[in-house]
Amino acid sequence: MPFEDELGDALRRTGDGFTSEGRDLVDAGERRGRRMVARRRAAMAGGSALALALIGTAGAYASGLLGPARDGGRANVAASPELPAPGGSAPAQRRSRVGTGAVSAEQLTGVLKQLLPQGTLSNTEARGTEDELGPMVTAVFDDGEGQSRIGFSLHRVDPQGARAEDMLKCPSRTTTKFDSCTSEKLADGSRLHLYKGYVFPDKRADVKSWRAIVVTPQGFMVDAHEENAAEEKGAPVTRPAPPLTIAQLQALVTSPLWHPALNDLPAAGQEEQPGAAARSGAKAVDILEELLRTDGIPVVSRDDDGPDLGYLVLDEGKGKSLVSLQIQTVDPKHPETWADLFTAAETLPDGTKVLTRQQDGEKGGAGVVWWSVEALRPNGTRLIVNAFNAETQSSDATRTAPVLPLQRLKELASSPKWGSEYGQ
Hints:
Strand order of the largest sheet: 1-2-3-7-6-5-4
Order of helices and strands: HHHHHHHEEEHEEEEHHHEEEEEEEHH
Strand content: 15-25%
Low-confidence stretches: 1-92, 273-277
Shape: globular
């Protein structure tokens, strides 16, 4: 698929994160699954930093990630698998990752061939350690059982930093469909992430995507992926599963043959901590479950994607229903961040502004309806409570309406509980 088409598709699939209706918060969990795919694609090919900003967060958009893109190459989604540090700029950080060129694109391709089982490589694209976008190789591999897109990228990261943590974390099963995901610590102190899922987090297509990532104590990161098709998108499945077993993929990323190239890259250094300290209170999912105890509806499952995004699946015997809570604290430097979204909102006696919506689901599930309430507290904290008549946003409806009525969602979003957790 041409770059323009792929970028357009990326923007269409993620642009809903920046609408005035607050879908950036509603879809945050799903975007994390997409971001995992996008970052892998970013590592495999050069492209536009714009798409990564859209796939990531509004904060990334505002903090200078929109650096100039580099033309040429088979660009899938974005230029860099890393978000810039607070206050940093994308071009400067790219330059800081450039090596001396001691290991060329051709040499890295040779290492990949050496580590693969018997077969042929074609349609190879590669970058050496001198490239500002970072070293990588991606190609079509054929072992005689069907073509597969396969590739890897090399990086230096802070092994204890947020970027490493984000890459090694398994996505939420509430928003991302996958077969297995593990993260473990190896004997040498390295951390290994093994993932068997699909190119699309909602499994709208059957192209499988298997992935292995290792982060070593010295900050080496090797990120490898394979699909059971010649292309990630737009190509038919060519085999039941990707060619390498998950054990072979692990052996590939943990091979010391990558070390000469990794040593040629400058160390990442210690990541700066965000300006605002992380909230130490209860997780959103815990607060949501506490508030719903008086309803007496059984909780079938629960999940979270960080402290401020939680999911509960409820079922009183009439069908499973997903309820989610997303909380967005305000930046003290920009206290009016969300104010324009609530110009038509109802204002409650305590000053909280409330918006309600009822609409069809947007993630492909048949018959899904989506009810939501947004609340803007006087101190600028924004809360969104959503309910669906299905177990997930992308699965088919299990009941005619969400388990919680709109009035109950409004009570949850405007609960006095938020004053003690997030301030007045």
